[in-house]
Amino acid sequence: MNLFSDRKYVISTIFITLVVLYLIRLFYIQVINDKYKLAADDNALRHKIEYPERGVIYDRNGKILVYNEAAYDLMVIPKRVKTIDTLDLCNMLQITKEAFIQKLTKLKKQKFSSFRPEVFEGEISLETYATLQEKLYKFPGFFVQARTLRKYPMRIAPHALGYVGEVDEKLISSNPYYRMGDNMGLSGVEKAYEIPLRGQRGVKIVMVDVYNREKGSFEGGKYDTASVLGRSLTSSIDADLQAYGEKLMQNKVGAIVAIEPSSGEILSMVSAPTYDPNLLVGRNKKKNYPKMALDTLKPLYNRATMAKYPPGSTFKLVNALIGLHEGVINENTLFSCSRGFHFGGLTVGCHPHASPVNLKFSITTSCNSYYCNTFKNILQKYPKTAIGFNVWRNHVMSFGLGQKFPTDLPQESSGNVPTVKYYDKYHGSGRWNAITVISLAIGQGEMGVTPLQMANFCSVIANRGWFYPPHVIKEVDGGKIDSNLRTKHYTKIEREYFDMVVDGMRNVITNGTGRIAQLDSLEICGKTGTAQNPHGKDHSIFIAFAPMDKPKIAIAVYVENAGFGATWAAPIASLMMEKYLRREVKRPEMETRIFEANLLPKKEDWISKK
């Protein structure tokens, strides 16, 4: 009897304990923890993503280059989609019934997407949004979510500013911040400054009725998270100068890059042909991007930072500085020029001019013979060609050539300064010398530079031996830019030699090959170049800076298949400098000639080059 009583008490105790634990858990779930309440109410609640506005981008003078315009996404929770008037919805969205069914079926098949909101049709127009709002109750499972689209009021600088596009599955898998339907910067400033520009999105939980209509915030916004606005950027671009440069380069292929030497700030970056950046915004991008991508003139390609061109005769300035530093020439060194440089059976031709030639006159008249002799003497100063070549190459690299800059431009080519290893492989180790690679003396051969590198090289000379990495952003919402962009880089050339070269560049404008760029009361220093092009007519090149002392602008201009540097590139550069330094241009005849010139290659010629 006692044994039975003991068992009864044990069983009763266990039962009471279980009941108490159950009641405690039920109290916790229903009163303390709202997790399950929220889950139970899920069919009456909607989690809306609050997309912050991306930061506005201004030019250096406060003009708006990029701002935001209201847009809307049609969202869907596939699990809640019931029988609806599909045809009516398709008509409003301007899509086919087949496309509607295919898209909805795909979303239903994706893991978890039946239970969470997904973008069904992104970036719908304001008109479509207004119509949808009136009829949304007819389409259970669908709702509209606000977001913004980028707007480019001045329609300039698409290659520098970049564009925004939808993220792909690869990015989502590597970055948990993004979801399907999100946008991010895909090129230019939009890509380089994606994190400060995008801000931080939030979530708002709202109640909806059986007719799919929002009835207000859930629990007074207790569970909402606030979005954080994107930070604004101040660009170094001068909007007026940029627009002017794009107009000068219309109906031409090439690039312009203008830099403020004292800061490394890019004042203008033109790639031609260009395009209206508004063409790659919203739903228009789907039809416009493929067209531009297939265009034989490659308007999407940023020639200013990606194209590799021979520097041509502008590179003679580099060899002059290296020759002075290495002590193989001085300002009084003379070389003869009998219509070119002659060595054995080799001849590098030159145009007629007085001979012999000293340093200053060699720059003024762009003498090929002078620089072939200089280059040969640099390499032959050392016991082995390879040693001399490496010394020469290291000097060249210190000007920022043949390498990418530590800059805020995400798409950039390194260009090419050939190596000993390359020539050893091509000619054989020890089986080549200065004469073998003599074309490097005049900026031809394997040398490849970008217009950005050439503008920076011109800044180096303007600064007499140093540069800041070229960049396109001055400030991030009032804060400082990356410290790497404010770090001076010095060449290996002594400062004293730069003044000799600057004097020669000044003489190019007053008495030499660049006289067309001359401007009254403004001391412009420049150098013309004509780069050989195996695919057709030579490229027209010009680099310059002004004023001669305390320079405010350095510029490089490339016009493809346009002939001599003085014919097209020099006047374009001169007009750009006048526009920037004087804010107006008073040479209408020169302007008209450049504006009206059509230097685009014929379609059949362009296709044959490919």
Commentary on this structure:
- The chain folds into 2 domains: 45-235, Penicillin-binding protein 2a (Domain 2) (Alpha-Beta Complex), CATH 3.90.1310.10; 239-275 and 301-609, DD-peptidase/beta-lactamase superfamily (Beta-lactamase).
- The radius of gyration is 33 Å and the shape is elongated.
- β13 (340-343) and β14 (346-349) form a beta hairpin.
- Helices cover 37% and strands 18% of the residues.
- The longest helix has 31 residues, at 2-32.
- α14 (359-365) packs across α19 (496-511).
Assign the CATH class of the largest domain.
Answer: Alpha Beta
**Overall tally of domains:** 2
First-residue to last-residue Cα separation: 105 Å
Q: Can you name the CATH architecture of the largest domain?
A: 3-Layer(aba) Sandwich
List the uncertain runs. Answer: 36-42, 604-610
Helix content estimate: 25-40%
Radius of gyration, taken over Cα atoms and rounded to an integer in Å: 33 Å
Number of distinct beta strands: 20
User: What would the principal axes of the Cα set say about the shape?
Assistant: elongated
Figure out the total of helices.
22
The average pLDDT value, as a whole number, equals 88
CATH superfamily of the largest domain: DD-peptidase/beta-lactamase superfamily
Largest sheet: 6 strands, mixed
- The proportion of residues in beta strands is 15-25%
- Tell me the structural class: alpha+beta
